[in-house]
Fold this protein.
Amino acid sequence: MPKSERKILLDFEKPLAELENRINQIRELAKDCSSVDVSEQISQLEAKATQLRQEIFNGLSPVQKLQLARHPRRPSTLDYIQAICDEWIELHGDRGGSDDPAIVGGLARIDGRPIIIIGHQKGRDTKDNVARNFGMASAGGYRKAMRLMEHGNSFGMPILTFIDTPGAWPGIEAEKMGQGEAIAYNLRAMFHLDVPIICTVIGEGGSGGALGIGVGDRLLMLEHSVYTVASPEACAAILWKDAGKASQAADALKITSWDLKNIGIIDHVIPEPNGGAHANPLQAAENLKKAIVSNIEELTKISSQERRKQRYQKFRSIGVFLET
């Protein structure tokens, strides 16, 4: 990994990075002075680093988890596809003149099973992020997603969606192209698909941009991902006219995986490696693949009619309201 990538640290990661740097420095010094045995000192510091890592990542606040979900080195849709798929063929275009790079999708095999995979795709650097519009899809992206879903439905292939977006593209041009209609169409159409649908929030799941590919039989979340009706910054700006109160909004919105699991929004939390998915992407991918394969096996045992019924009831039962 290049040094430039290693230097991307969140504030709460810095004490751990300093301790790990100290361990590395002692190792380097020991090489130059082989007569000095520092193995016990290194062992003690490594144990301290392990404990510190657990304390940090087990006690993250909602706004810290939001920062982790937005980490520039966090694995993306294409990263997971490369890690968990036996084969992958990306398909392009919505057959209406658009090919939105903020949403990728195509045909794949996982353990020999043919599937359709669709997901938001952010960039790795500023240039790539601009090209992919920071993972904010346009109307054409959601139409491309639905074209691929209908293809999978025609051939009996399960559908996997990976959610990682701050929201749909909020530009005026997006509304001119029918952004709201495209998302609404997807919401309705996904309820009627016959094949199993598994949706996984792998990073940041924001607003209607996430929901546009988020209706499924199972909704999974990686442990340090977030899922919210609006970003904490937007919520704070709306409620208090102060985006600086994002931390307060994040607490109130219940955006973390375990909060959403406890209130029945999501079905399963996928554990991440100690230090977050970016600390060990291959382990994160292995955990993700295990959860996906397990859920596909469960869902394929259910008839398509029963799956559609359960899918409808799942979303119909989310939320409560009071009449006064």
User: Anything to note?
Assistant: Residues 11-59 form one domain. Residues 39-58 form the longest helix (20 residues).
